[in-house]
Amino acid sequence: MALMLPAALRSDSLQRDLIRLGVLPCATAAVALTLWFTHERLDALEQAFRANGAAIARQLAVASDLSLYAGDVETLRDLAENMVAKGIASRVEIGNGAGIAIAAGPESGKLKHARPFAEPVRLRATRGLTDYPRPGGPALDIGTVRVFLDDAQHRSARAASMLAGGLIGGTALLLAWLSARHMARAVVRPLKRISATVSSLQEGKLDARCGPCGRNEIAALASDVDHMAQRLQDAYSSQEERIQAATQEALARLSQAEQATRSRTRFLATASHDLRQPVHAMGLFIDGLLPTASPAQLPAMQRLQEGTQVMSALLDALLDISRLDANVLSPSYAPVRVRDLFDQLDAMHGAIAREAGVELVWRDRGRAVMTDAGLVMRVLDNLVRNAVRHSEGGRVLVAARRDGAATRIEVRDNGIGIAPIQQLRIFEEFYQVANPQRDRRNGFGLGLSICARIARLLQTDIGVRSAPRRGSTFSLLLPSTDAPPVAPMAAASEAAGTTSLDLDCLLIDDDEAIQEGTAHLLRQWNCRVDQALTAGDALRKLRDASRRYDVILCDLQLGDSDDGLALLLQARELRPRATAIMISGTTTPDILQRIREASVTLLTKPVAPAKLRALLGRWTPAGRGARSASL
């Protein structure tokens, strides 16, 4: 309360609010009553004026009935002129359908403020010996009279009534404002004293007091503030010691938390590296043994290969999350043809879709977008893989559509669909809609989470439209461009299909098992391999001019002190034409950032042999020729 009172009790704002609080109800009541009384008064004046006009017209009709019936024009004219002359009416008109028309006074078109009142002239039907009507008999209309009355006095009376109502209402409002102002001041004055006392307490002047402020609730508030100030003053002597003790305890806990965070980071990095090393070695040896496996051994080898692929996928997903958390991924925007993206996706998923009986349809419509091709491929790869997996022998449509100034790429399937309540959670980590048994062959529930984070990195979002048993549509909105697209990236499957790599490679790794497995694979691909266990051995071979190297593959961690990244940077200087490839299982953010800043090609353990072969295929003579043609 002490921190909020000075801001909340500023006298100008509070006094204004209190005045409004007092004036608004009174003003509303005064205006309503004034309007009601004024309306009643004006209505009464209007009814009186109309009744007077109707009475004059009726009186004239009664006075002129016999004369009009007898055709006594002179009497009728005298009657009309007499009424005008005496000011009873501004104009009088008497007429019938037999040709009698008497008028007295100015023409009706010249009477600006006169209102007409009409009344029929009636006679009672006659019977017996006399020709005059008998009272009480049937009525007979013989003509009409019209009387024009000047409403100047009526308008004056209306104006006077309205003025009186306004004066009464204004007087009521003024009295209400004065009363509310007086009461507001009576409330605000003690509150200002309380506010000033609280401000002094905030500044450290603990001897400030409100003093007497009357005998109402505000006085009780002032008394409470004084008691609070007294207690603060009494506790001030021990306050600094308590704060210092609490600060020291907080610093100690913060240090413990930071130490725990560092320990956890080191543990995750070490565990990730130690897990990736054997998985990487397993994958290399399994792919090396598959070509020579006997028919009896082949099923077991394929099972082992499937297990290593699943573990590799999980470790890769965890690495992607680490990279996103470390902010080491930054988009490199360039014009990209949608057709090139679709060609790569078809090369990656076409065969799998045909085996699953799924029809893949691609419609690029000649669109081009401004984006990071690699990051977009990561997103679309996951979306197309999920669509093929859930289509169940149906059809998957991947299309690019115009959406205003942008291009929307949609991946549509006819699978089981997603319920609306689940659509809010499919982008959560480890959440899967149709995998309650957590079958690892159906993924781990990280793909869409990573895709959503990559989409946000590209300043867009992944849209979802789905319904149970009606399929799903995932979409990605990207900015369109008319700029010439960059050269398409070579599809992995093209390079992987090379029958012979024919490369000279230098393999640097301190793990003999991984080194032997990698060297065995490279030799199967018709590569010539030199091996080095230490950085010193690698540098001696790099300085040997008689040795030729097309590719240098190096592990990040070489023994206790050797740094693979530093070694690759030296290798660039010694062999500028050789391609340097870093192989690492680390997930440490600062190390990943260093590798990115050095612009070194990174393969993350466990490396799938097909991926390694596809990458090396880009530096074969065929691969170099394909890249030259694309440039």
Automatic annotation (TrEMBL):
Q: Which UniProt keywords apply?
A: Kinase, Phosphoprotein, Transferase
Residues recorded as bearing 4-aspartylphosphate in the entry: 555
Q: What InterPro entries has UniProt attached to this entry? A: CheY-like_superfamily (IPR011006), HAMP_dom (IPR003660), HATPase_C_sf (IPR036890), HATPase_dom (IPR003594), His_kinase_dom (IPR005467), HisK_dim/P_dom (IPR003661), HisK_dim/P_sf (IPR036097), Sig_transdc_His_kin-like_C (IPR004358)
Q: Give its localization.
A: Membrane
Instruction: Provide the top EC class.
Output: transferase
Query: Could you tell me which SMART domains the record lists for this protein?
Result: HAMP, HATPase_c, HisKA, REC
Catalysis: reaction(s): ATP + protein L-histidine = ADP + protein N-phospho-L-histidine
What are the residue boundaries of the Histidine kinase domain, all occurrences included?
270-482
Annotated ranges, domain Response regulatory: 504-620
| This enzyme's EC code(s) | 2.7.13.3
The primary location reported for this protein is membrane
Q: Where in the numbering of this chain does the HAMP domain appear?
A: 185-237
Q: What is this protein called?
A: histidine kinase
> Organism, per UniProt?
Pigmentiphaga daeguensis
